[in-house]
Design brief:
The protein is α+β, with helices and mostly antiparallel strands. It has one domain: Glutamine Phosphoribosylpyrophosphate, subunit 1, domain 1 (4-Layer Sandwich). It contains 6 helices and 13 strands. About 30% of the residues are buried.
Length: about 230
């Protein structure tokens, strides 16, 4: 099962998210604790928002723990909004076009898990949709979901979101990292990045979250058949 991270908050070096935490995403690529597989070595991708009109992306089919370009780039890119995805293929080819996150205009998208029995609906889906939003080089369920704005009931593992920074500062006044982050900083991860007490909260099953300025929202989520 893929491992991933989404960050929103004070601009940080990407290496501070991917490499430096105790149980970083790079560590998870070799030593996942909550995924279906311990090792996730079928490529990776990062996406970030900076000064350009669209987010930057970098994909590779190298195992994340073994890619020197990733280590070099992450030490030089600072961003307030970052997506990172470590891929574990469910049977589709290991190629760059299958690596998340996917980009369309100003949007980035990634997911974890597989869509159950996708092969049974893939042909009807392709024939039914008139305006794909991305070139149709897809060979995975995730790419078709992104390319055609299609939603289906998926199967995924737990996610975790970070406790608000002001609460963590009060609980851990001597932690210097917390004083470098704005109150709006949030991280959503497939596995906690460390063992700081009170820092991580599990997302309830069948839920969706909205991270925004001010109060974030956590809502129940129930897929509905297309009309």
């Amino acid at each position: 099962m893929c491992r991933w991270l989404a960050y929103s908050g004070s601009p940080v070096l990407i290496e501070d998210l991917l490499l430096k935490p105790q149980h970083s995403l790079i560590d998870q690529s070799l030593h996942a604790q909550l995924g279906a597989e311990t090792t996730n070595g079928d490529g990776f991708g990062i996406g970030w928002y900076g000064g350009g009109g669209t987010p930057g992306i970098f994909h590779s089919v190298e195992p994340a723990w073994n890619d020197r370009n990733l280590r070099d780039l992450s030490a030089h890119i600072r961003s307030p909004l970052v997506f990172a995805h470590i891929r574990a293929s469910s049977g589709s080819p290991v190629q760059q076009t299958n690596c998340h996150p996917f980009r369309h205009g100003r949007w980035l998208w990634m997911h974890n898990g597989v869509i159950r029995d996708f092969h049974e609906v893939e042909r009807d889906l392709v024939l039914a949709v008139e305006h794909p939003i991305q070139m149709t080089v897809a060979t995975t369920d995730g790419e078709w979901v992104w390319a055609f704005r299609y939603s289906s009931e998926g199967r995924s593992r737990s996610l975790f979101y970070s406790t608000d920074v002001s609460t963590l500062r009060a609980q851990h006044p001597d932690n210097p990292v917390l004083h470098q982050l704005s109150a709006e900083t949030r991280i959503v991860v497939s596995e906690p990045l460390g063992d700081l007490a009170g820092a991580w909260n599990e997302v309830p099953e069948s839920s969706c979250g909205v991270i925004q300025q001010g109060q974030d929202e956590l809502r129940p989520f129930t897929p509905r058949p297309a009309s």
